[in-house]
Automatic annotation (TrEMBL), chain A:
PANTHER family: ADAPTOR COMPLEXES SMALL SUBUNIT FAMILY. It comes from Chloropicon roscoffensis. This is AP complex subunit sigma. Transmembrane segments: none annotated. Belongs to the adaptor complexes small subunit family.
TrEMBL record, chain B:
SUPFAM superfamilies: ARM repeat, Clathrin adaptor appendage domain. Residues 697-814 form the GAE domain. This is AP-1 complex subunit gamma. GO terms for cellular component: AP-1 adaptor complex. It is found in: Cytoplasmic vesicle membrane; Golgi apparatus. Belongs to the adaptor complexes large subunit family. It comes from the Eukaryota. InterPro entries: Adaptor_Complx_Large_Subunit, AP1_complex_gsu, ARM-like, ARM-type_fold, Clathrin/coatomer_adapt-like_N, Clathrin_a/b/g-adaptin_app_Ig, Clathrin_app_Ig-like_sf, GAE_dom. Keywords: Cytoplasmic vesicle, Golgi apparatus, Membrane, Protein transport, Transport. GO terms for biological process: intracellular protein transport; vesicle-mediated transport. Coiled coil: none annotated. It holds the Pfam family Adaptin_N.
Length: 147, 817
């Protein structure tokens, strides 16, 4: 039951955020893997299911406007739970950035990472409560403003 | 000077070509390197975000790792922001470099005891993502303390951290017992840390068999929490419910008493959860998995299967996917319950979505049994017209397997396989093809049927045939031609030769087809002497072929015609092929057969059988896998053909066999005329008639370590039946002048490699004695072909009493392991 990676990809297939948990892949392997998966997912239609099998991963993806959220998991993971989890992530990002868009994530890449780090650790879902997740981020923002 | 991150990202985005992007990034990387080199005490926090961005784009960022460590180690008023980005940088940028992790341990232990809660949380989060085995041992006490912290966010992270610690260092599982169980007892357990608590339970149970009973005692607590969750909106509690159900699944497996106690609450979850939203269906799905995997019986299982049935009929394709996947597990328990949904499953195989189709196909094949194989097969054959090549490969592979396993009669087997070969020949894999050939060769009663069927296809419908079908047909006709000219629908020998003539001339016939055709023709010339002149002429036509193998064969055959005396023996039909599992047995039986040959044979035959007997007994007595490998090799040769994976990778152990055989053949025609046992005849003919398999290069020996007098050498053995596995024979010798004692060699491999090390044959090496220590290491490269074999060796020994320790990375394994 492990999440192996989380990817945020835009409609053109460019990676906007990548988080790997406990997968030590070399840079080339990673770029290749992302390319393959993104190609597979982006070519699918709305009616097809949101789960694809790729190598030894199951990849669950959801599309929000121009952004694709892709989560790679192992064989044992509950796919439907991951679907729900992606939605939680999007809601949390919406709350923090205010109607999140691709540019928000690009220009605040570290914030987006913090947010995911509060929600996932060691490949498992840690917390999905928006208030809990955002407390440390808001606290950081406050610190930055005052300094 | 470095730019601001916002501008930098904009610059990268504005690049119109990849070259332009590389230039921008090279410039920025250079600036960052210079910045990191200056030790002016100024914070470089903002630059780390750039590195994370660079890393995401796939550019090298290792130079930033030390900077991250520096940021983590800071302790000033603004340190939270800096530590946070430092940890983020490490988590993202770190490759498996142990040295950096070692430096990190100290900072982590400081931060875990920090007064600032946020710092503690960040450190725990980083530890949960980065922890290595050494760190797990060093920091387990700190984590245990924090697991019972009063701050909920800290507790929550500490618990998940503990899961990672146990994953990395399973012997810690017992140590966490008290905390793990105490968490379940906390009165007002915050719903969030429950999440981790359940995960921790699963992890501990995985490593500590006794733990199941610890958690079994707490079942009532879990049931109570689960009940509480059902009352709340499912969106808020779905993840908790899943985790509780998961833990129940782990402790309830095979324990009827516990499953009985769970059944009420499981039924409650199954009936009360609303499946219309994803959150609800995810809980239902988890619940069904728990019911099925704990082996619940009766009403509960019916309920579970019904839920899956509902999923299967749903319009949401994700639910269908989940149902198909889970039904596969139900098949073993209750195939009839799944068979009720057969029509829907079959419909799913025709879905437009490849994910659904593949899953449905897997499930359908699970359902096939002896009783229903004929019904299913007609459906499966209907799917052969699909045009997705990946899907088709899978489909054909599975059809072949099912036909092989469940065929009610050989005739049915022949019918179906011919149909498959005809419609999807190029997707039929090597082993299925071989099994089919073996079946025809062993099924004496139905050979005629098979040969006639194949012959009628290649003679009357040549446009439909393909390479694989042609090869098989030609081989069958060569072997069993006599069946063709007898009984109903008999054909004349000259008709057969005409068909051969046409096949060989047709533009579509590949080199391999022609090779088979030549071999078959030469056999025909023996069965029907009246056709011999025509056949000779045909064969002669290839004497100057530009394909070496074809030329070789045709020339050999031409010369063969000059030895009329031995011709009938050389060209006699092949013995029945032993396939699959029988290979091992065949090899075991071989020495006996060889012995017999020595008794029965005339004087030269006895001389011949001698090296053979030696060889075979050596094989059988030595290593079973070597015997199996040579069996596979022999089969490969029988079928001839160049591009055969089995023949292309014979283990080095199989090589000695080839040598004596070469001698045998060198011995000339006189030997061949003596009656030989079928096994030997098979061998001889195989080598004579088949193209020589490309000689397998013996895998070279490597020397990963040669220092301080200690030499480590690796030699390799491969088992042809398991190409992913390699047996490494390690040999340690002392070439120096010192006394080596307490030698211990440890291996570490990346995750995609499985490793099994045997005990070494000793631990001390005296100088100058030529003594050696041997150790066997079995490795399986699960990503063979995609990733090379590699390992790290830790060599520890005492040289004249002084301890030495050495780390060696071994990357120079022979290619293809």
């Amino acid at each position: 039951m492990t999440i192996k990676f989380i990817l945020l990809v835009n409609k053109q297939g460019q990676t906007r955020l990548a988080k790997y948990t406990d997968e030590f892949l070399s840079v080339d392997e990673r770029v290749m893997l992302e390319g393959e998966i993104v190609r597979k997912c982006l070519s699918r239609t709305e009616k097809q299911c949101s789960i694809i099998q790729h190598r030894n991963y199951k990849v669950i993806y959801r599309r929000y406007a121009s952004l694709f959220f892709l989560v790679g998991v192992d064989e044992e993971e509950n796919e439907l739970a991951i679907m729900e989890f992606i939605h939680c992530v999007v809601e949390t990002m919406d709350r923090y950035f205010g109607n999140v868009c691709e540019l928000d994530i690009m220009f605040h890449i570290e914030k987006a990472h913090y947010l995911l780090d509060e929600m996932v650790a060691n490949g498992t879902i840690l917390d999905t409560n928006r208030t809990n997740v955002l407390t440390p981020l808001q606290m950081l923002d406050k610190q930055q403003q005052s300094s | 000077m470095t730019t601001r991150i916002r501008e930098f990202i904009k610059q990268v985005r504005d690049c119109k070509t990849a070259a332009e992007e590389r230039a921008v990034i090279a410039k920025e990387s250079a600036a960052l390197r210079t910045l990191f080199k200056q030790s002016d005490g100024k914070s470089k926090a903002a630059s780390i975000a750039k590195l994370v961005y660079l890393h995401m784009l796939g550019y090298p960022t290792h130079f930033g790792q030390m900077e991250c460590l520096k940021l983590i180690a800071q302790n000033n008023s603004n340190s939270y922001a800096e530590k946070r980005i430092g940890y983020l940088g490490l988590m993202s940028l770190l490759d498996e470099s142990q040295e950096i992790l070692m430096l990190l341990t100290n900072s982590l232990s400081v931060d875990l005891n920090s007064k600032n809660d946020f710092v503690v949380r960040t450190a725990l989060g980083a530890l949960a993502n980065l922890c290595s085995t050494e760190m797990a041992r060093d920091l387990s006490m700190d984590v245990r303390k924090l697991m019972l912290s009063r701050s909920h966010p800290i507790q929550e992270k500490a618990v998940v951290c503990a899961v990672r610690l146990i994953q990395k260092c399973p012997e810690l599982a017992v140590e966490f017992k008290d905390e793990a169980l105490a968490l379940l007892d906390l009165k007002n357990n915050c719903i969030v840390s429950l999440h981790g608590t359940m995960l921790l339970g699963v992890e501990i149970c995985k490593h500590e068999p006794e733990a199941v009973s610890w958690y079994a005692d707490k079942l009532d607590v879990m049931v109570r929490i689960l009940r509480k969750c059902i009352m709340q909106p499912v969106v808020r509690t779905c993840f908790i419910q899943q985790k509780i159900l998961h833990l129940m699944r782990v402790i309830g497996k095979g324990n009827t008493d516990l499953t009985d106690r769970m059944s009420d609450v499981l039924a409650e979850v199954a009936s009360k959860t609303d499946p219309s939203r994803t959150a609800g269906s995810s809980v239902l799905y988890e619940c069904v998995r728990t019911i099925i995997e704990t082996g619940s019986v009766g009403g509960l299982r019916v309920l579970a299967v019904n839920i899956l049935g509902k999923f299967l009929g749903s319009r949401d394709s994700n639910l269908r996917f989940a149902a198909l996947q889970t039904l596969k597990r139900v098949v073993n328990l209750d195939a009839n319950a799944v068979l009720r949904h057969k029509s829907v499953i079959m419909l799913c195989i025709k879905d437009t979505d490849i994910s659904i189709r593949t899953k449905a196909l897997e499930l359908a094949f699970e359902l096939v049994s002896e009783k229903n194989v004929e019904v299913f097969m007609s459906d499966f054959l209907g799917f052969l017209d699909d045009d997705d090549s990946h899907f088709k490969t899978e489909l054909v592979g599975k059809i072949c397997l099912v036909v092989e396993t469940f065929a009610p009669t050989p005739i049915w087997y022949i019918d179906i396989m011919t149909e498959v070969l005809l419609r999807a020949g190029k997707y039929v894999n090597e082993s299925a093809f071989r099994s089919f050939a073996a079946l025809i060769s062993t099924a004496a009663d139905d050979q005629g049927y098979a040969v006639k069927k194949l012959f009628s296809i290649i003679s009357y419908e040549p446009e439909k045939s393909n390479e694989v079908l042609l090869i098989l047909s030609l081989w069958c006709i060569g072997e069993f031609a006599l069946e063709l000219t007898e009984g109903e629908d008999a054909v004349t020998s000259s008709e057969i030769v005409s068909v051969f003539d046409r096949v060989m001339r047709s533009g579509g016939s590949t080199k391999v087809v022609i090779e088979y055709a030549l071999t078959a023709l030469v056999k025909l010339s023996d069965r029907y002497p009246e056709t011999a002149p025509r056949i000779k002429e045909l064969i002669l036509g290839y004497n100057a072929s530009s394909h070496l193998e074809i030329q070789q064969r045709s020339c050999e055959f031409r010369r063969l015609f000059n030895h009329q005396k031995i011709l009938p023996q050389v060209l006699e039909a092949m013995p029945p092929i032993l396939s699959g599992v029988a290979e091992g047995e065949g090899a075991e039986g071989a020495p006996a057969a060889a012995g017999e040959g020595a008794d029965l044979g005339s004087a030269p035959a006895a001389a011949m059988a001698d090296p053979m007997g030696d060889l075979l007994s050596m094989d059988a007595g030595g290593a079973p896998e070597a015997a199996a490998a040579s069996g596979g090799d022999l089969l490969g040769d029988l079928l001839g053909g160049g591009p055969e994976p089995a023949a292309a990778v014979p283990a080095p152990a199989a090589q000695p066999q080839a040598d004596p055989l070469m001698d045998l053949l060198g011995g000339g025609g006189g030997l061949l005329a003596t009656p030989a046992t079928p096994g030997q005849a098979g061998d001889m003919l195989a080598d004579m008639l088949a193209p020589a398999a490309p000689a397998a290069p013996a895998l070279p020996t490597i020397t990963p370590h040669n220092k301080d007098g200690l030499v480590v050498e690796f030699s390799f053995e491969k088992d042809a039946a398991q190409p992913a596995s390699t047996l490494i024979r390690a040999r340690y010798t002392n070439v120096g002048g010192g006394q080596i004692a307490n030698l211990v060699v440890q291996c570490a491999v990346p995750k995609y490699i499985q490793l099994k090390m045997e005990q070494a044959s000793g631990s001390a090496l005296a100088p100058g004695t030529g003594a050696e220590i041997r150790q066997m290491i079995a490795v399986t490269n699960t990503l063979q072909g995609q990733k090379p074999l590699m390992m790290r060796l830790k060599i520890e020994f005492a040289l004249d009493g002084a301890p030495r320790s050495e780390m060696v990375e071994v990357r120079d394994f022979p290619a293809g392991l």
